[in-house]
Design goal:
Shape: globular
Number of strands: 7
Strand content: 5-15%
Distance between the termini: 22 Å
Bound molecules: iron/sulfur cluster
Strand order of the largest sheet: 5-4-6
Helix content: 25-40%
Number of domains: 1
Radius of gyration: 17 Å
Structural class: alpha+beta
Number of helices: 4
Length: 174
C-alpha cells in the first residue's frame, strides 16, 4: 500500500469517534472540576505520533487551507498552535483528544494504577474518588491504537516503518 486513502484509516477514525464520545461523557461528569477552555494551551507541546495517526491526519487535512501555521518554533512548541488555538483541532491526534481529563494507567510494575491529569484541573477533587468508571481507560485505548497502527505499518510502503516507530507531528507540513 503506497497511497492510503480515507478508507484505509477507517479503524483509526472509528477509534477517534469512540474517544470523543467518552470525552464528552467524562466532561459532563466532571464539568465542575475541569477548567479547560479555548486559549488555555499549557498542555500543547511538540509531540510525535504513530504512522497511522500521522497519515490519517494528513489524509484528512488540507494543510494549505490553514493560515499562519506557526513558523518561529523551538523544538518544544507544537507547530499547530496558532494564537493559543489548535489549527488542526478536528483532526488532532489521540493524545490531544484526552487533554485535561483524568487518565488511568496501570503502573509500569503492573501492580498498581496511576492517575494522570492536568494540574489546572481537579484542584479541589479528592483523587481517591477516581474510579475506573469516571476515568479514561488509557491502557485499553493505547492497546487499540497500537493494534490499528500495527496493521497499518504491516501493509505500508514495503515495511518503511516498524510497529514502534513514531513520526514528529511537525513533519505534516514539511
Ligand atoms: S495538535 Fe493541537 S491540541 Fe495537539 S498539541 Fe498541537 S495545538 Fe495542541
Ligand atoms: S488540559 Fe490543562 S492546560 Fe490543557 S486546556 Fe485543559 S486546563 Fe488548560
Amino acid at each position: 500500500m503506497n497511497h492510503p486513502d480515507k478508507t484505509t484509516f477507517a479503524p483509526y477514525y472509528q477509534l477517534c469517534t469512540e474517544i470523543d464520545a467518552l470525552s464528552e461523557l467524562l466532561e459532563k461528569q466532571h464539568h465542575q472540576h475541569i477548567n479547560c477552555k479555548k486559549g488555555c494551551d499549557l498542555c500543547c507541546m511538540a509531540i510525535s505520533v504513530f504512522p497511522v495517526e500521522f497519515y490519517a491526519i494528513k489524509a484528512e487535512l488540507d494543510l494549505k487551507s490553514i493560515p499562519e501555521l506557526s513558523v518561529s518554533q523551538n523544538d518544544e512548541d507544537c507547530r499547530y498552535l496558532v494564537g493559543h488555538s489548535c489549527a488542526i483541532y478536528p483532526s488532532r491526534p489521540v493524545i490531544c483528544r484526552t487533554h485535561g481529563l483524568p487518565l488511568l494507567y496501570m503502573s509500569l510494575e503492573w501492580n498498581d494504577w496511576e492517575l494522570s491529569c492536568c494540574e489546572l484541573n481537579f484542584t479541589d477533587f479528592d483523587l481517591d474518588d477516581f474510579t475506573p468508571e469516571n476515568t479514561y481507560p488509557m491502557d485499553r485505548i493505547n492497546s487499540q491504537l497500537y493494534q490499528i497502527n500495527k496493521n497499518f505499518v504491516a501493509d505500508f510502503e514495503d515495511g518503511k516503518y516498524s510497529e514502534t516507530d513514531r513520526i514528529p507531528l511537525a513533519e505534516l507540513i514539511l
